[in-house]
Design brief:
This is 1-acylglycerol-3-phosphate acyltransferase. The protein is of the alpha/beta class. 48% of the residues lie in helices and 16% in strands. It has one domain. It contains 12 helices and 10 strands.
């Protein structure tokens, strides 16, 4: 390990630890609000959730700078624009479900950044693997954020999802649920497992994606249909040339944040579907979702030949905060508590 890599590694770890400890401390400081008013407590937790969005965008911006080209279907032409500083601005519905193909371990960070551009980074709920909730500090904080942890045992997961979706349906604030229907990163062995399933069930296998898992998304839509407006579909492609076929095999978390590997460019194409138009019958929904995935696969296949996604306009930007000083928001609650304690001490 070179000196430069060591410095990057320890700087990243230090920023992550300081940030997550600060955020978790802020979450814990607000727990007495549960006894006073649950609605106020939920608003407080949403406020601290914005800190997490800011932290992760800051980490990407500082340690893994990522150029982005964003395109979208023509009917979405008025929802995306760049401000005078070249930062992406997004207009999105207040209550929505977001799905995407899963290319890298950092995909969820990029989607949190996209939520940040829509000022919805306080209201995001992410579906994650159950094991992640036991990560010290970070996992505890995600549990307080009511992220949804699944074990891939349906009886247990259905009960978990029903409980959390009941909360999301009743919360008066905006809400954005993030799911990766493929369930895991696209690499050689996961693609082969998906292909075995496709061969077994007699369905066509995409060239550039895994087959989506139907049950979780179908159940989510059935539970949230009454309170959600749109389903947003993001298609990610990375234009880095490598002898390895899959992006996740080239750009691990270690390579991106410790070793300084740079993504040449991330391309994102956005589509939107009105949830009320999505089939409610499971068989029809399976057909609908597979068709959307085949369309995504064709988008990626065409991208390989043209070098870009279709759309009325291409927006070129980077994953970044509007101002790096926003990172100081993480300490606002701690500073306020310190100031209050100091003022009280003056009168004692």
């Amino acid at each position: 390990m070179t000196l430069k890599t060591s410095v990057r590694k320890y700087l990243f770890i230090s920023c992550l630890i300081v940030g997550t400890v600060t955020i978790c401390t802020s979450e814990v400081l607000g727990t007495p609000l549960v006894l006073i008013n649950k609605t106020l407590y939920n608003k407080y937790i949403s406020f601290t959730k914005s800190f997490a969005g800011i932290l992760f965008v800051f980490l990407v911006q500082s340690f893994s700078p990522t150029p982005v080209t964003l395109t979208y279907d023509p009917e979405l032409r008025n929802l995306f624009y760049l401000d005078r500083n070249g930062c992406l601005e997004t207009i999105a519905s207040e209550r929505n479900i977001v799905i995407a193909n899963h290319q890298l371990y950092t995909d969820w960070m990029y989607i949190w950044w996209l939520a940040y551009t829509a000022k919805q980074h306080s209201f995001i709920y992410i579906v994650l693997k159950d094991s992640l909730k036991w990560i010290p500090i970070l996992g505890w904080g995600m549990q307080l954020y009511r992220f949804i942890f699944l074990s891939r045992k349906w009886d247990r997961d259905a009960a978990t999802m029903e409980r959390e979706f009941r909360f999301i349906n009743n919360v008066p604030e905006p809400a954005s649920l993030l799911m990766f229907p493929e369930g895991t990163n696209l690499v050689q062995n996961t693609y082969e497992r998906s292909k075995l399933y496709a061969d077994k069930t007699g369905v066509a296998m995409p060239k550039n994606l895994m087959l989506p898992r139907v049950r979780g998304l179908f159940y989510s839509l059935s539970q949230l249909r009454g309170s959600m407006t749109y389903l947003y579909d993001f298609t990610f492609v990375f234009t880095d040339h490598s002898p390895k076929k899959y992006a996740a095999e080239v750009f691990s978390l270690k390579q991106l944040f410790f070793e300084g590997a740079r993504l040449r460019r991330m391309h994102v194409h956005v589509r939107r579907f009105r949830i009320s138009d999505i089939p409610t019958d499971e068989k029809l929904f399976t057909k609908w979702l597979y068709q959307r995935w085949y369309e995504k696969d064709q988008l990626i296949e065409d991208f390989k030949h043209t070098g870009g996604f279709p759309g009325p306009r291409k927006l070129n930007t980077t994953v970044r905060l509007k101002s790096r000083l926003e990172i100081l928001y993480l300490f606002s609650i701690l500073f306020t508590c310190f100031a209050v304690c100091f003022l009280i001490s003056l009168f004692l």
